[in-house]
């Protein structure tokens, strides 16, 4: 029996410039999955593999585009290195996203958008409840699903040009790294496995120095684009890093 297609919802935002800007979200049904990797190319901070349970949520079909960023923040707050309305919004810091972009977006939409947790991100990248053990998001062949150093011509690409994963999510391997909500801690997987069985809706350490980034980017190597790879960054803005929207309950979808 074929798996049902995830529900897709399009929300239309009336931008600061008076023009409408649609964006799409995919419903992700919650479940338990095996987070992390024990593969030969896995780093210590991806181990051990451990069971994690996540609740239902909605996630952006694409990373936030420059068009959506400008619709929320205005043309005067568009710091992107690579210009193009359908390219990812990059050079945006974790703080700017959380302190400026998301509050404005939520006021405009009446929703409660946020960054994904690291667990939500990996669960979605693996395909959700019908998750696979693909190395990348939707394939074991990175060229099918992602932009990276060997095919990007050293620039970001418009979203949605590669094959999506099982949930219909695009560019979760390559193009730009994606900010997650969590603080990074290299030993956190070990601690979770020591203290608990199945971890439910983990949100990461209470504090830290770095924030988690996931997915790899346009000017780096395939190993960084694996769905289990955990990047981290001291929260600065970079042409390598964008973000994807998540919301626990999408009020407007009913």
UniProtKB/TrEMBL annotation:
Signal sequence interval, chain numbering: none
Transmembrane feature ranges: none
Domain Sulfatase-modifying factor enzyme-like: 24-246
GO molecular function annotations of the record: formylglycine-generating oxidase activity
Pfam families in alphabetical order: FGE-sulfatase
Gene3D superfamilies named among the record's database cross-references: paralog of FGE (formylglycine-generating enzyme)
UniProt-listed SUPFAM superfamilies: C-type lectin-like
Superkingdom of the organism of origin: Bacteria
Stored PANTHER family: FORMYLGLYCINE-GENERATING ENZYME (PTHR23150:SF19), SULFATASE MODIFYING FACTOR 1, 2 (PTHR23150)
Annotated protein name in UniProt: Sulphatase-modifying factor protein
Organism of provenance: Haliscomenobacter hydrossis (strain ATCC 27775 / DSM 1100 / LMG 10767 / O)
Taxonomic path: Bacteria, Pseudomonadati, Bacteroidota, Saprospiria, Saprospirales
């Amino acid at each position: 029996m074929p798996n049902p297609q995830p529900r897709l919802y399009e929300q239309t935002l009336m931008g600061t410039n008076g023009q409408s800007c649609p964006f799409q979200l995919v419903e992700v049904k919650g479940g338990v999955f095996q987070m992390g990797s024990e593969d030969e190319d896995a780093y210590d901070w991806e181990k051990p593999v451990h069971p994690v349970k996540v609740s239902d949520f909605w996630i952006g079909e694409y990373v936030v585009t420059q068009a959506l960023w400008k619709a929320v923040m205005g043309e005067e707050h568009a710091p992107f290195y690579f210009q193009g309305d359908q390219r990812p919004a990059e050079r945006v810091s974790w703080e700017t996203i959380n302190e400026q972009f998301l509050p404005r977006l939520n006021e405009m939409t009446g929703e409660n958008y946020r960054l994904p947790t690291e667990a939500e991100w990996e669960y979605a990248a693996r395909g959700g409840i019908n998750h696979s053990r693909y190395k990348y998001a939707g394939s074991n062949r990175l060229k099918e699903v992602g932009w990276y150093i060997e095919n990007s011509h050293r620039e970001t690409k418009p979203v949605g040009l590669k094959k999506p994963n099982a949930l219909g999510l695009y560019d979760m391997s390559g193009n730009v790294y994606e900010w997650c909500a969590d603080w990074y801690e290299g030993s956190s997987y070990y601690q979770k496995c020591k203290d608990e069985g199945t971890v439910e809706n983990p949100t990461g350490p209470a504090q830290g120095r770095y924030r988690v980034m996931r997915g790899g980017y346009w000017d780096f190597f395939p190993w960084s684009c694996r769905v289990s790879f955990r990047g981290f960054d001291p929260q600065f803005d970079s042409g390598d890093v964008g973000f994807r929207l998540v919301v626990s309950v999408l009020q407007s979808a009913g």
